[in-house]
Amino acid sequence: MEADMPDRIRQMPLLDVAQLDMLREALDEDELQAMLSELPQTAMQAIDAIEQAVKTNDLDGARRAAHVLKGVASSFGAARLAEMAREIELDMATIDRVAACVPELIATVERTAAAFSGGVRPADHVAS
Question: Is residue 22 helix, strand or coil?
Fold first, then answer.
C-alpha cells in the first residue's frame, strides 16, 4: 500500500514551538522532559486503536482514535503528528487510505520522540 499522507503534511515542522514554549513556562525543564517522554506510549495507544479499527473495517472508529491522537499530539507540541491525525479524522474517506498511513504515523512518533529526547530547543521547529 502506498502512503497516502499529503506532502504538505510531510513538510510541516515536527514540533510546535509556541506550544512547547507554553509548556516550558508552566513546567520546569525536568517536568517538561518527563512529560514529553510519555508521548511515544500515549501516541502508540491511539495508533493501536486506529490499527484495530482498520482490522475491523471501522472507519468511524479510526476517526475517533485519530481525534484522540490529534489532541494528544497537539497538547505535546507534536505539530506534524497532530496534523496527520487531523487528516485521518476529517479528510480520509476510506479505511484503506487510513491503513496506508499507519506506518508513517509510527515513524512520525519515533522522529518526534527523538527530537524530544534530544532536548527541545527553538530550532527544533524546522521540518525533518
Answer: helix
